[in-house]
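User: My instructor asked us to take a sequence, write out its structure as tokens, and then describe one feature of it. I'm not sure where to start. Here is the sequence I was given:
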Amino acid sequence: MKSISLLSLFALCFACLGLYAQPTDLMAKKAEKNNKSTPAAAEVAIIKTSKGDMVVEFWPEVAPQTVKNFKKLANERFYDGTAFHRIVAGFMIQGGDPLSKEEANKDNFGTGGPGYQIPAEFNDRHHARGVLSMARSRDPDSAGSQFFICLDDAGFLDHEYTAFGKLIKGEDVLMNIGRTQTQMGSGGEKSQPIERIEVESIRIVSSNSIK
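Assistant: Let's start with the prediction itself. The structure tokens for your sequence are:
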């Protein structure tokens, strides 16, 4: 009788353990599900200039390393205090040169960079008004920090320059900057702004924060 009682007692204990284990497992699974990170909201860049603000979205699906580099430099405040040093009416505005922080460097504007270069990520995105793309020299893999924003259609740049985003807010600001009067620069091109167009800051923020 004692053996039967002991066996019954053990069976009851195991049954209890099984009953209590089930909710624990369910809780663990629920906790694991809740802890899974949800996709982060897309990030955009707010380009604050002396003429107003522009907001651009990124295309990491076609130029991941270029987007990563631009965000890195922006987060390091690399662009703060630079200027749009090259403006070609009907074509584009160019900035991102650290040398443009000092007007004394004017003759060398367009030659500066972050001290390294990144590989080209040419893609099928069309260079149209508002498209953000990387400036470079003749070497396809010579981009660093300088970028440009198209003022109009520039399809001849497709597959030759890395497009990595586009303007989603502030087209009026873009076009206003594009109308800035220019003069001949040291390179023999009439693209040097007479009025300084400063990039006061570039901040990377969640797209959810943009109204």
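For the description part of your assignment, you could build on this observation: Helices lie at 2-35, 64-75, 171-178. Try explaining in your own words what that tells you about the chain.
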